[in-house]
Every structure is written in structure tokens, then in C-alpha cells.
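Key result, reporting period 2: structure in, sequence out.
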């Protein structure tokens, strides 16, 4: 297991656009018995309701969503480039089909009972503040439905989760 240091949020110099959109992250949720993780490249880091928060967008049919919904916490783990193939794997295979940790060799570790990926180098540990299912009625720009959801069933709509960032870990 790697040694992580708590990292003060006000010292962060990361670019959230490249960090999330190009480098991607693994969203992890679950408990000591069973956890699951999936790749995400949509989301944000910001401020809401007086807290530093992470925003993640998870389609209803993701197995990881079941773990996020069941537990009070989730994490966002970021990685060095050398893990890109693992991130691709976590983004195309579902934990319903196979044990992604076993096959990839990536490992789950826990801090304060919150699961995160030990091979990551920058982790946001989050406490769920809100879960907002996004419906078609929310789309103001018709292109959104056409481009991202057309021909797909309800299970493809996203839920927005807002998580208070309790801790940032870095190594
Ligand atoms: C680069 C990349 C980014 C992705 N971003 C998201 C995302 O932001 N939200 C989402 O619901 N799915 C996203 N996915 C798809 C999930 O990672 C994928 O469906 C995964 O297999 C779900 O795993 P699970 O069923 O074990 O939860 C992304 C996939 C890739 C490859």
C-alpha cells in the first residue's frame, strides 16, 4: 500500500478541465466487503453550499451507481499516465461482468472507511451531499438529447452527485 499525505485544497494548482477530461479518473464506491470502480471523464471540482465539492455524472445503468447509492461516500482517484490502459479497461468493462480489481491488479484501499484506488497519485474523498437524477425535461438545448441520449433508454440518463470533499490525498 502507498503512503499518501493529506493535501490542503487551497494549495492545489491543478487544471480541472485537463485533469478530468483528458487524464480521466476512477470513481470508487463500496465498503470493506465489496467495492466497484468506473472510469469517468465528466465532472467538476468547485464550491457549493459552503463546501469544496466534486461533481460526478453517473449513468443509471452503471454498476458503480449501485455502490454510490448504497453508501454515504465515494472517491475520485487520479493517476499517472502509465495507468491509462487500466483506466480504459475500467471504462469499457462492467463490474457486473468481472472483478475489475482482480483482472487489472489495481487495488482498493480505505481511508476513514472510504474506498479509493491505491495506485492513484491524487485522491478526493467525498461525502455525498446530493443525488440529482437528470431527466430529459432538464435539457434546454435540444442538441444534448440528440447528441448524448438519442435512441437510448432511460437507463442511460445521468445522475449528478455532489460530494463534499472531506480530504485530498496526494503522493
Ligand atoms: C474515458 C471514459 C470516460 C467515461 N466517463 C463516464 C462518466 O463520466 N459517466 C458515466 O456514467 N460513465 C462514464 N464512462 C463509462 C463507464 O466507465 C463504463 O460504462 C464502465 O464500464 C462502467 O462500469 P461499471 O458497470 O462497473 O460501473 C466512461 C468511460 C470511458 C472510457
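The corresponding designed sequence is given below.
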Amino acid at each position: 500500500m502507498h503512503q499518501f499525505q493529506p493535501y490542503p485544497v487551497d494549495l492545489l494548482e491543478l487544471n480541472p478541465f485537463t485533469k478530468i477530461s483528458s487524464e480521466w479518473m476512477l470513481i470508487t464506491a463500496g465498503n470493506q466487503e465489496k467495492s466497484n470502480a468506473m472510469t469517468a471523464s465528466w465532472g467538476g471540482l468547485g464550491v457549493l453550499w459552503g463546501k469544496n465539492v466534486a461533481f460526478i455524472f453517473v449513468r443509471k445503468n452503471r454498476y458503480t451507481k449501485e455502490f454510490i447509492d448504497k453508501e454515504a461516500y465515494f472517491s475520485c482517484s487520479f493517476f499517472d499516465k502509465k495507468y491509462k490502459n487500466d483506466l480504459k479497461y475500467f471504462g469499457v468493462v462492467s463490474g457486473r461482468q468481472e472483478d475489475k480489481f482482480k483482472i487489472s491488479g489495481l487495488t482498493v484501499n480505505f481511508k476513514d472507511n472510504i474506498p479509493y484506488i491505491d495506485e492513484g497519485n491524487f485522491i478526493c474523498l467525498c461525502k455525498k451531499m446530493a443525488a440529482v437524477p437528470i431527466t430529459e425535461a432538464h435539457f434546454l438545448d435540444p442538441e444534448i438529447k440528440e447528441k448524448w441520449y438519442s435512441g437510448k433508454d432511460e437507463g442511460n440518463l445521468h445522475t449528478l452527485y455532489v460530494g463534499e470533499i472531506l480530504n485530498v490525498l496526494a503522493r
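The chain has one domain: 5-170. The chain has a mean pLDDT of 96. This case is discussed further under Risks and Mitigation.
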